[in-house]
Amino acid sequence: MIRVLLADDQALLRTGFRMILQAQPDLDVVGEAVDGADAVRLARTLEPDVVLMDVRMPVLDGIQATAAITADGGAARVLILTTFDLDEYAFAGLRAGASGFLLKDVPPAELASAIRAVAAGDAVVSPRITRQLLDRFSPHLPDPAADRGRPPDRHLLAALTDREREVFGEVARGHTNAEVAGRLHLSEATVKTHLTRVLSKLGLRDRVQIVVFAYERGLVNGD
Predict the structure, then answer these.
(1) Cα–Cα distance between 195 and 210 in angstroms, integer?
(2) What is the pLDDT of residues 32-90, one digit of tens each?
(3) Which residues of 171-208 are buried (b: 16+ CB within 10 A; e: fewer)?
(4) Residue 144: its pLDDT value, please?
(5) What CATH number is associated with residue 157?
(6) Full-model pTM
(7) Which of the two ends of the chain, N or C, has the fewest CB atoms closer than 10 A to its terminal CB?
(8) Which run of H or E residues covers position 160?
(9) Cα–Cα distance between 101 and 94 in angstroms, integer?
(10) Domain count for the chain
């Protein structure tokens, strides 16, 4: 069973999501949070696999709550609920450590599939969309990695093999596994193996986080 925590300050929406998810044989709603602070507390006590996180909530908003949950280092992965697919909230959610985002009016089947994908360690939003979000919104927000004009932190990739660095670079530019395989003349299975090692060595959660990591440290440019 995939354990899901719902975080939304509107009781009607929580009820709707619960009804949708509880109808799935492999999804179990283990708790409901009424605000961001409640989401952080329940994520720690209930240890869900996936947190379905609304953005606009009282006490602590969904972005701050996402950052707190991912910083805890637990297994919980966060899916952000947003109104528009390319807005600043989606961007901020990914930057805070979410594994993807969904529109609030997502069809039930797509919602269930997204939760399964994130629980399995994948990301719901593609690296290319992540790159578009970074290009659009990053210049308008403070850079947590410090001065954007500093030289790229190439030493951060020292633990990677040459091939792993190549895979890292291709994923960071927004390419899919199939595209990486074609560009590097590898099988998709081999790309996945290298990608798994890259994530482990860099301590990242999924391929979306590779894009954010590389972009904010100046490790990739263009296509």
Answers:
(1) 10
(2) 999 999 999 999 999 999 999 999 899 999 999 999 999 988 889 999 998 876 678 88
(3) bbbbbbbebbbeebebeeebbeebbebbbeebebbbbb
(4) 47
(5) 1.10.10.10
(6) 0.81
(7) C
(8) none
(9) 8
(10) 2
